[in-house]
Amino acid sequence: MPWHPVYGGAPWGVPCAGVTAAQWRASKLGVMTAFPPVPGPPSAQNIELIEALREDFIEAGFTNDGVAELLGAEAVAALDREQVVPGQLRVQSELSQQMPSAEADSTGGPAAEAETLSQSQRCAVLTALWLVAVPVTYHQVQKALPRTGVEGLRQLGLAVLGPEAVWPACDLRPYLVETRAGSRDLWVTSDLSSHQVTGALPKDHVLGVGQASLTLAGITHRRPVQTALDIGTGCGIQLLHLLDHAEHVTGTDLSPRALDFARFNLLLNAPALELDPRNLEDRVELLEGSLLEPVAGRTFDLVVSNPPFVITPRQAGETESDRYTYRDGGREGDALMQELIAGLPAVLNPSGTAQMLGNWESSADEAWDARPRSWVSQAGLSAWFIQRDEQTPAEYAETWLRDASEERSIQDYRRRYGQYIADFASRGVQQIGFGLIWLQKPAEQQEDTTPWLRFEQLTGEIQQPLGPVIGQTVQRALAAHTDEAGVLQKALHTPETITEERYQRFGAEHPEVIIARQGTGLRRSRPISSAAAGFLAAADGEFTAAQLITAVCSLTETEEDTLTQEVLDLYIEGYVEGYVEQ
Ligand SMILES: C[S@@+](CC[C@H](N)C(=O)[O-])C[C@H]1O[C@@H](n2cnc3c(N)ncnc32)[C@H](O)[C@@H]1O
């Protein structure tokens, strides 16, 4: 299963301001030839109106939990698969209960004025509008958002007013985040996703919170830092997380449309993010430009990026407007990853870290990590790459053509599919890897030390958030890299989440394979020697690792150097914990 977002969806079209009733009815009958232009991004001009909207959302219970309660588990799971029908049925049922009559609605007379909606009906109106593409009436919106009103939504650019109904101008959904101070209810706007528009996605589409966004947010080690940079910020989702542990954050993007969404999202969530909406610049900076250009000459403690890494066949004479900005960096092959990694040392402070997602190509006679290794060795960075998935050129083409709903035009789909295949063949590419990246610039006093490098494939299920595990693993690896003796003096113990599996043929005297398995985090499993199994069985925090190694080696007639190396690996990978740090 690829871990990046793949959008499927129902052919649901949205009308825009300026669409006549006749045009819209025609479009619903499938006779409209030109689909109206995509609405603009939300407007961040009117801070009071944004505050009013937030208050309306809270009062309507339009939160993660509120929507989950309204829709139920099945419809929520369907929404996660970009399927809206179960949710549509659910909100329609909620809205049909004791809602204002059509007559009251159209006249807006005294009966309609007096009508009130329950909290769950208000939540249903907003869920209908922004999450499951069910049109709502002016009156329903007015009642669900009394402070903002229909006109307020239009001014903010969040809805378009059709002749008979209100339609979403963007995707807007509650987003629950875990912060150091507990859970916070936020809301995120982005462009309408594929189930809310007809045809392929527009090229300047601004991505919402997709699987890849969540993956990056989950793997980021959230240590307190002064400065953090998010390259290709999109709707600003990573910034919302970074503000919890960075004093100052900078988001860059090539797309001004994306930066408008990001600014709006920051303002909408200002109190939860501890931002002063009138002085956003105190803690946040949004810069337009390509990759690291907007921050040339500056350095940061932490860089995160879900970059536009998707490998795309280049076309003669193509311009920026021919590319899906949200995923295509406009380079050949995986050159964008190489360029970005090469530029990182210049924008990282000493000991500064970068966490990213990425793609890399490999040919038939190349290991998957050949290219990533060459990128980091040229940049002089410590690195940990975890390959999570691998696809053939054909699988890759299918994934990304589906992602932008390009299969909705069969001719374009065939043409583009062929181009992907030809493009990969031109570079002899057989596999495309997807994965997680951690990088670190050496500390000032360690510039001459050999960088720590780790490249591994972990394609099984992992337990997010992995940020703490990533932080702990690299801390241990760097300690073992520079102070092996210090690590061996720690008293270690085997956590309860680590279990042992033994495999042997019937009647065999000893197990032929012993596997140590983690029940949490990266959920690794690794074959271990019987000496290491003895070490893990004995490690209860009473003795130092060095003492235990000596004891186990004398019992099992094992070389101490061999077991020492194995124990260091087990310690780095979290199979044993430092019980009493000495
Ligand atoms: C995959 S999206 C990531 C959005 C968001 N950060 C997230 O985590 O979901 C990639 C973003 O990179 C932006 N982008 C595309 N080309 C870029 C470039 N050359 N320099 C900077 N940003 C770029 C796109 O506009 C898009 O917002």
From TrEMBL:
Keyword hit for Transferase: yes
Gene Ontology terms: biological process: methylation
Keyword Hydrolase (UniProt): no
GO annotations of cellular component type: eRF1 methyltransferase complex
Domain Methyltransferase small: 222-310
A molecular function (GO) term: N-methyltransferase activity
SUPFAM superfamilies: S-adenosyl-L-methionine-dependent methyltransferases (SSF53335)
Span of domain DUF7059: 59-161
Region (Disordered): 95-115
Keywords assigned: Methyltransferase, S-adenosyl-L-methionine, Transferase
Coiled coil location: none
Highest taxon, organism lineage: Bacteria
A Pfam match: DUF7059
UniProt record similarity statement: Belongs to the eukaryotic/archaeal PrmC-related family.
Protein name, entry field: Methyltransferase
Species name: Nesterenkonia alkaliphila
Lineage of producing organism: Bacteria, Bacillati, Actinomycetota, Actinomycetes, Micrococcales
